Predict the structure.
Amino acid sequence: MITLLLFLSCSPEPFSSCDPSTQVLQDEFPFPVGVAANPLALETNPPYQEIINTQFNSITPENIFKPVYLQPEEGRFDWTEADKLVDYCEVNGKRLHAHTLIWYQQLPYWMENFQGSPEAWEQMMKSHIQTVVRHFKGKVTSWDVVNEAFEDDGSLRENIWLQHIGESYIEKAFRFAHEADSTVLLFYNDYSIAGKRKKRNAILAFLNEIRAKGVRVDGIGMQMHIGYNYPGNAAISKAITNIWENDFLLHLSELDISINPGGRDMPEPDSARLARQAEKYAFVFNTYQEVPADFQHGITIWGVSDAQSWIPSFFGRDDYPLLFNEDFLPKPAFCNLLIQ
Ligand code: XIL
């Protein structure tokens, strides 16, 4: 039944040749094709689970590996939900890319209000990183160690870590993670890496500098929360090349493509923009295919269906940024990827 619906909803032309029961995303591309997932939805929502089971071979926890969930009170770690996702990945043969250790959002209250000297802050950060990394050792392939540490102008973001530890917090976070698991791949992850050249240059310069000091940084996650018309294709290509040419693995880590970046009233998706969204998704996948295989960590889509995308609630606007619509039916963007 699902198959039939998937097929029918892909008409009319030019996106009609789409039968997800015989053609699935994970088989279409030689690199991992991932999705951000939540264990609760996986347990309770059959169409959501069906799509993840069949279409994707890599999972990023959308929220459940963030500090507010893993260490809700100081020294008390809660693995219950996170471990469900680990089990799901083990049983279903999915790669698990873990997200995220050090960020300025989704922190528990106690962490945000922690009192202590710079040394005490460093110890608190170390303890969070190492307890978490050790718990998931052998179960996850890779970690987003530091998330969103830079502003768009290339300066370091004023966050609690910078305020209390100083700019060395970034290299320390990578060192602590590596001490806890010397085989897991370590990523720096951020947004607007394609759109903001100054930001990209600052991130590359900073990471190259800490690497030169012997800090292990394996790769960069370009989040790719982009729009149907921005950034331009040339900027996206350039950013992609720029990263692997600097010898970093490249993860397009949180791809979604807004069709309403201006936030106008759009109670139904605009079909002309859905077509442009489909072209943009195809452009991103095609451009990523040109990255040398050794640098391809994969592309991860930030959610399954438009109904669960973070964008409408987070930014307070109507939007339809993902590959499946609110009824879990494939959109032109999905079918278009299958015929690339
Ligand atoms: C978002 C989740 O998708 C939402 O469910 C949550 O309410 C807020 O965080 N950059 C990131 C992700 O690195 O962790 C964010 O995820 C989206 C922006």
Residues 130 and 180 are 5 Å apart (CA to CA). The first strand starts at residue 33 and ends at 37. The chain has 15 helices and nine strands. Residues 1-14 have pLDDT under 50 and may be disordered.
